[in-house]
Amino acid sequence: MDSPRSGWRPLNVGVVGGGIGGMSVAIAMRRAGHQVTIYERNDFAGEVGASVSCAANGTRWLHEWEVDVAKGDPVVLRSLINRDWKTGEPVSIYDLDDYEKRWGHVYNMFHRQYMHAMLKDTALQEEKAGTPAKLVVNHPCKNIDMETGTIHFTNGSSAQHDVIIGADGIGSVVRKIIGLNPVKRPSDSSCLHCNVDTEEAVRHGLVDYSQNSALEYWGGQEGKWDKIVLSPCNGGKLLSYYCFFPRSQGDYVNQTWGGEDRPVEELLNPYPNLDPQVKAHLAIGKDIQPWRLWVHEPYEYITRHQVCLLGDAAHPMMPHQSQGACMAIEDAAALGILFSPPYFDGNIVQTLQVYETVRLPRATRVQAAAAKAALNINERIGFSSNTNISNYKVDDEGKKLTIEEMNAYDMYKDIEEVLAAARNMPYAQSSEWKRGLPVDLFQTG
Q1: Tell me: the pLDDT tens digits for 203-227?
Q2: Domain spanning 12-77+104-182+299-444 has what CATH number?
Q3: Is domain 185-295 annotated with CATH 3.30.9.30?
Q4: Closest CA to 313 of 20, 13, 12, 14
Q5: Half-sphere exposure of 114 (CA within 13 A, CB side)
Q6: Residue 282 CB partners (closer than 8 Å, separation 6+)
Q7: CA distances from 275 to 90, 208, 224, 284 (A)
């Protein structure tokens, strides 16, 4: 599909939420030829936290959208390392040396704020294709009139749009407006996050984990909640630690990020037998904050009329596959493709229904796989390929999530197949591709 379809027209798009997902979809829709306004509830559009993973299935869209990735100061990952809980010795290593050659793009690890700034610059910049998006702050969404496509804000103002995208996170207001009330429960796991300055760790005579350029995990092999995840970011200058333990040892489900830092003793207490090196890192940790973990059942739908959901608003997931940001980026890419001149025929409602059909199965599969990987690191993408490790075991070889399934996925082919069905047309590549995957991968997936 190369030439513009009959009926294509530029749209006025409203995006509720100015985080990573909101900025990503603003870029995608801008590149597709539409005018975009982003409404942020706070007095600035920012992100909290530290590290965020962007594997090849996310990085490819950054390149396609001509994002200046260097502005995000990423660490390009060279491996995934699972370490013994007590000794720190490597138990399982997944080598990423041939990753870019295999998949066409690197595996980036960003500092969340830097990644957000990078995306915001691209969405709003005067340069490059499309009309620069507009950012409007201090505009919390109150309601949406789906008859007229009008967003009503808590400050009394309103705005009309042809398409409205709810990118307002796990506590999404837009999700509730379209009639979704999540079935959710607190995770049996709690998490505290902290940051460690690499320079300070070295000054204390500790191991310089930044040299590994790796996502590193302690524990996760024994069917227990105890697990430490280390993500280097800011070019290796910052080490971002996510520390999981049973909720019975600390319940943070009703606390929000951004409050007073938790004491370092609270971070260390759950881990009496932890590898001394990483425990010494945590002892100099700063910005110790709780991360609320909720398990959401998959949603039955993510669109209604001219409104759709994206990212955590559409499919909140546990963090154990490191795919949350990539799924939001993929959502954005799907909307950008579907509303681009070669694909969009002017029918907004049908196009959003195709978006739902394309995105829900893939995101729901990752959501389920992330829950499995919480207790068994062998289910995690990458480690799920290390079948020769002595303690390797997964629930079902045929159902595990693999790096091939994630990175061989071709969204254009998925969209073309679903669009063909929606338009009662044959799909020419049905013998080779099924739902964006080579047929052999789909059959085993």
Answers
A1: 999 999 999 999 999 998 767 789 9
A2: 3.50.50.60
A3: yes
A4: 20
A5: 22
A6: 194, 196, 228, 241, 243, 264, 267, 268, 271
A7: 12, 15, 16, 15
> Any residues with CB less than 8 A from the CB of 432 and at least 6 apart, and which?
438, 439
Residue 57, by phi and psi: left (phi above 0), alpha (psi -120 to 50) or beta? alpha
Over residues 258-283, mean pLDDT: 92
Distance CA 52, CA 418 (A): 31
Q: How far apart are CA 388 and CA 427, in angstroms?
A: 39
Whole-number Cα distances in Å, 187 to 71, 182, 247 = 35, 14, 8
Domain range list for the chain: 12-77+104-182+299-444, 185-295
What's the pLDDT at 445? Answer: 44
Rounded to an integer, what distance in angstroms lies between the CA atom of residue 113 and that of residue 47? 5
Q: Mean pLDDT over all residues of the chain?
A: 93
Question: Which distant-in-sequence residues (6+ apart) come within 8 Å of 101 by Cβ?
Answer: none
Identity (one letter) of the amino acid at 30? R
The DSSP 8-state label assigned to residue 367 in this structure reads H
Closest to 52 in 3D by CA, of 93, 20, 15: 20
User: What does the pLDDT average to over 391-408?
Assistant: 92
Q: Which amino acid is at 194?
A: C
**Whose CA is closest to 236, among 200, 204, 202, 212?**
212
Q: Which of 253, 234, 320, 312 is nearest to 50 (CA)?
A: 234
Would 12-77+104-182+299-444 and 185-295 be classified into the same CATH topology?
A: no
Q: What is the token pair recorded at 390?
A: 């002595």
299 within 8 A of 176, measured Cβ to Cβ: no
Higher per-residue confidence, 228 vs 258: 228
CB 193 within 8 A of CB 242: yes
Report field, pTM of the whole predicted structure over 0.85 = yes
Q: What span, in angstroms and rounded, lies between the C-alpha atoms of 304 and 349?
A: 8
Instruction: Give just the sign of the alpha carbon dihedral 350, 351, 356, 357.
Output: positive
- Residue 73's alpha-carbon distances to 61, 112, 231, in angstroms, are 17, 10, 14
Residue 444 has pLDDT above 70, yes or no: no
Q: DSSP readout, 167-216?
A: ---TT-HHHHHTT----EEE-SEEEEEEEEEHHHHHHTT---GGGG-EEE
Pair of tokens at residue 152: 């009503």
Mean pLDDT of the 62-87 span:
97
Task: Tell me if 403 sits within 8 A of 409, measured CB to CB.
Answer: no
What are the C-alpha distances in Å from 306 to residues 147, 370, 371? 9, 30, 31
